[in-house]
């Protein structure tokens, strides 16, 4: 965690919290939606919950790469949104979109090592918010349609126009869902970054 | 309670006995008796209950019957109420009809008066005319008879004159012959001068006398011929008179026909009068009923009472009654308006007829004047005949008479035509009058109610048809509504999709959507790659001179190497082998696919394509030689353009036509294919 005191937070610490959340959220979604076999997941205690994290080295490496890049972009306020898209392997049609809107406080982007004191939330408070979102993600399995077809996933990052695209990265289409239903989930904030979660899925 | 008392008494009697066993026995006996009694009582009670139930059932039945009776009575009361309503409506309709009839009667009376007046005047005029024409006919017949007599006398005279003239001519001819013979004898005997001179002088005198007499006879003969001509003319004139007399008889016949028509009209009038009388009688009856309503026998008061009753009833029955009444009143008003219009048209026709009759009367007067003039002329002619007027004057008069006769004939013809027209009009009017009367008569009868009902039924049927049409339209409308609903739903769907897209577009506005190239989720399933992933792989493995693909591969290798620096040796080796394997496999698959694709293109389009950099070389399936190839390259705008080859020199015409003129490479290729194909087929046929 990036905060050593209960009421103090830095940009770096906030980025770390967000990155960690994204990693666990992606793992959790991939487990819940059965994109990867359940035996490839292991249990980890996090946020006061038992989280499932993949043991697939390729997947872990991929997520790690994405999160590394995402961290650097989060630190510069380039990220607007992270989207986890589930697509049908046969048709390539988008079936589910897990969106995480990111809002960054621009005041913290200029000065390096700037601290937010007093107003900042405590670790527990942030954890509780993240816990609530993770619980919602787990619970959303109940209303989301079953994914009968074999699916693949992709992580899309909505970055600002002036972002430098690394060689490993490329531009992609939005992969939006035609005739979609949308469900807003809870959000959490570190007072520097605010993350709003939502899920949209193809209506029958 | 009584049974319990009895039981206690029995028990007392039993207890009061000698021994306990006997007492017990007696108690048992008493108990048995009491049980029997109890059972009997129970049975009685059951019977009573049964009776009560039966009575209750009976009562229920009676109650139901009474309910039914009440229901029936209510129904009959409703029917009676309806009947009373109908009667009231009928009474109201009768009142309105009565008023209408009174007004109609008044109108008809006034019309009848007018018609009677006109008819009386017309009949008087007609009678006068007939009398005058009959008198004239008799006079003309008399004149004709006198003229015929005169003609017969004149013919006799002519015959006598001709006979006397012939006799004289014969005498003169015999004298002339005798004189000629004498002259010849004297000429023969002209030997002596004295005797000869004497004889010649005497003969000359005689010849002179004879010639003079002959001239006189010729003159008289001429005069007689003239007279005969005059007499013949007179006869002709008389004959013409006679024919005109016959025409006058025809006129008389026409007039008689007119009289008949007028008589028919009069009979129709009589009928109408009778109807009027009937209506008056009805009116009187209704007025008497109305008078009876009032205690004093005043008619106006009775009407007021009737109106008040009807108003009261209206207020009680309210709308439905009003609606029915209004409908009937409307229908009656419509009919009355129709009748009024008919009466107006009849009035107009009668006025037209009267004016025509007036015109006919004027013409008849003119004719009469002419007839009088003719009569005077005939009289003068007779007088002339009697006074032996000269033949020339007579002939002049006859000519004048002939002229006047022609004129009169022309006027008579025009008159006859007018009369015929008038008669036609009269017939039409009579027919119309009869129809109108028949209508009125039928209205007066009760059968008109049935007709009205029939018409109402017809109207109801029409309404039903209209409603069924409306229903069909409505069903169509419903189906259309369903369609529109479906379309609306579709539109709503599309709108929602559009909104979602807009939202996504908004989200992606001012931002770049990025993703990591190496997604293990996609790469780990190469057997079933998605369509979007197929394309870049094909591009990657198109290694037949594709420098871009090579560069990409080099980049990838460089990336891997860069990654390898960060990883351990074992991991690097593992990653390298995995990457090599993957690359080899993808290459193999891509080659196979590319070959398949090329073969399919060759078989489908007839061209084998080879790509080297940005140069595309096409060789036709039906080309004569292997050197006949077309080269295409990309131009600045990203389109394709033909590059110079030796084969192009032989295709100047085609190139001019398809590329320079129409700017179509596919058309050129198709033309070349078909051209080569035709050549090869010709060759094989030969």
From TrEMBL, chain A:
Gene Ontology cellular component annotations, sorted alphabetically: cytoplasm; kinetochore; nucleoplasm
Family: Belongs to the MAD2 family.
UniProt KW keywords: Cell cycle, Cell division, Mitosis, Nucleus
Compartments (UniProt record): Nucleus
Domain HORMA: 12-199
InterPro entries attached to this UniProt entry: HORMA_dom, HORMA_dom_sf, Mad2-like
Annotated protein name in UniProt: HORMA domain-containing protein
Any Pfam family the entry gives: HORMA
From TrEMBL, chain B:
Basic and acidic residues biased stretches: 509-518, 525-540
UniProt-listed InterPro entries: Mad1 (IPR008672)
Highest classification ranks of the organism: Eukaryota, Rhodophyta, Stylonematophyceae, Stylonematales, Stylonemataceae
Keywords: Cell cycle, Cell division, Coiled coil, Mitosis, Nucleus
Native organism: Rhodosorus marinus
Protein name: Mitotic spindle assembly checkpoint protein MAD1
Family the entry assigns: Belongs to the MAD1 family.
GO CC annotations on file: kinetochore; mitotic spindle; nuclear envelope
GO biological process: attachment of mitotic spindle microtubules to kinetochore; cell division; mitotic spindle assembly checkpoint signaling
Keyword Coiled coil attributed: yes
Coiled-coil portions: 31-282, 364-497
Residue ranges, annotated region (Disordered): 509-551
Location(s) in or outside the cell: Nucleus
């Amino acid at each position: 965690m990036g905060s050593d005191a209960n009421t103090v937070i830095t940009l770096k610490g906030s980025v770390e919290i967000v990155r960690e959340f994204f990693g666990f959220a992606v793992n959790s979604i991939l487990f819940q939606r059965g994109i990867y076999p359940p035996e490839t997941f292991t249990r980890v205690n996090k946020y006061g919950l038992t989280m499932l994290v993949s043991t697939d080295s390729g997947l872990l490496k991929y997520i790690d790469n994405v999160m590394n890049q995402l961290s650097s972009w989060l630190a510069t306020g380039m990220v607007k949104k992270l989207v986890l898209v589930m697509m049908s392997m046969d048709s390539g049609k988008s079936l589910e979109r897990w969106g995480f809107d990111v809002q960054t406080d621009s005041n913290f982007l200029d000065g390096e090592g700037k601290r937010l004191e007093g107003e900042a939330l405590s670790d527990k408070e942030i954890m509780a918010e993240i816990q609530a979102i993770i619980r919602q993600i787990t619970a959303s399995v109940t209303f989301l349609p079953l994914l009968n077809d074999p699916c693949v996933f992709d992580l899309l990052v909505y970055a600002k126009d002036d972002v430098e695209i690394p060689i490993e990265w490329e531009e992609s289409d939005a992969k939006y869902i035609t005739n979609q239903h949308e469900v807003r989930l809870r959000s959490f904030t570190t007072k520097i970054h605010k993350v709003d979660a939502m899920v949209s899925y193809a209506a029958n | 309670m009584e049974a319990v008392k009895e039981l206690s008494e029995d028990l007392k009697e039993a207890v009061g006995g000698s021994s306990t066993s006997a007492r017990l026995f007696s108690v048992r006996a008493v108990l048995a008796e009491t049980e029997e009694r109890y059972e009997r009582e129970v049975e009685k009670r059951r019977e009573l209950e049964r009776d009560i139930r039966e009575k209750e059932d009976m009562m229920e039945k009676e109650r139901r019957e009474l309910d039914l009776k009440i229901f029936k009575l209510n129904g009959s009361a409703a029917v009676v109420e309806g009947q009373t309503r109908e009667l009231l409506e009928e009474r109201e309709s009768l009142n309105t009809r009565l008023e209408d009839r009174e007004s109609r009667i008044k109108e008809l009376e006034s019309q009848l008066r007018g018609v009677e007046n006109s008819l009386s005047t017309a009949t008087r005029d007609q009678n006068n005319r007939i009398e005058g024409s009959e008198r004239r006919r008799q006079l003309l017949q008399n004149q004709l008879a006198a003229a015929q007599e005169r003609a017969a006398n004149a013919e006799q005279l002519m015959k006598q004159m001709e006979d006397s003239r012939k006799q004289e001519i014969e005498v003169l001819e015999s004298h002339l012959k005798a004189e000629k013979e004498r002259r010849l004898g004297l000429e023969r005997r002209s030997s002596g001068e004295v005797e000869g001179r004497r004889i010649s002088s005497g003969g000359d005198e005689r010849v002179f006398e004879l010639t003079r007499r002959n001239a006189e006879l010729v003159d008289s003969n001429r005069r007689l011929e003239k007279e005969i001509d005059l007499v013949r003319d007179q006869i002709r004139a008389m004959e013409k008179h006679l024919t005109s007399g016959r025409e006058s008889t025809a006129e008389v016949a026409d007039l008689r026909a007119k009289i008949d028509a007028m008589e028919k009209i009069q009979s129709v009038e009589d009928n109408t009068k009778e109807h009027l009388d009937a209506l008056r009688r009805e009116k009187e009856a209704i007025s008497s009923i109305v008078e009876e309503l009032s205690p004093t026998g005043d008619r106006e008061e009775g009407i007021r009472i009737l109106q008040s009753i009807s108003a009261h009833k209206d207020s009680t029955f309210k709308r439905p009654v009003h609606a029915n009444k209004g409908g009937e009143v409307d229908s009656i008003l419509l009919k009355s308006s129709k009748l009024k219009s008919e009466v107006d048209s009849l009035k107009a026709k009668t006025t037209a007829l009267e004016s025509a009759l007036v015109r006919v009367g004027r013409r008849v007067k003119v004719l009469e004047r002419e007839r009088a003039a003719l009569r005077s002329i005939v009289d003068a002619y007779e007088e002339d005949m009697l006074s032996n007027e000269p033949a020339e004057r007579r002939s002049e008069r006859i000519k004048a008479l002939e002229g006047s006769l022609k004129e009169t004939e022309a006027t008579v013809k025009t008159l006859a035509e007018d009369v015929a027209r008038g008669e036609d009009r009269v017939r039409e009017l009579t027919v119309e009058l009869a129809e109108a009367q028949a209508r009125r008569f039928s209205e007066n009868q009760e059968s008109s109610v049935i007709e009205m009902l029939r018409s109402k039924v017809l109207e109801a049927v029409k309404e039903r048809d209209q409603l069924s049409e409306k229903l069909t339209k409505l069903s169509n409308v419903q189906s259309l509504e369903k369609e529109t609903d479906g379309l609306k739903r579709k539109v709503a769907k599309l709108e929602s999709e559009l909104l979602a897209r807009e939202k996504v577009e908004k989200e992606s506005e001012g931002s770049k959507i990025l993703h990591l190239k190496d997604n293990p989720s996609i790469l780990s399933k190469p057997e079933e790659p998605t369509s979007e992933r197929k394309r870049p792989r094909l591009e990657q493995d198109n290694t037949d001179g594709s420098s871009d693909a090579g560069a990409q591969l080099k980049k990838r290798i460089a990336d891997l190497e860069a990654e390898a620096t960060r990883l351990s040796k074992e991991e690097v080796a593992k990653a390298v082998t995995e990457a090599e394997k993957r690359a080899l496999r993808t290459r193999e698959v891509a080659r196979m696919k590319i070959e398949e694709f090329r073969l399919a293109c060759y078989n489908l389009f007839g061209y084998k394509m080879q790509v080297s950099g940005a140069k595309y070389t096409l060789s036709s399936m039906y080309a004569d030689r292997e050197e006949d190839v077309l080269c295409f390259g990309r131009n600045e705008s990203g389109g394709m353009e033909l590059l110079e080859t030796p084969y192009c020199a032989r295709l100047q015409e085609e190139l001019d036509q398809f590329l320079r003129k129409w700017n179509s490479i596919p058309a050129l290729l198709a033309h070349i294919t078909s051209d080569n194909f035709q050549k090869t087929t010709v060759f094989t046929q030969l």
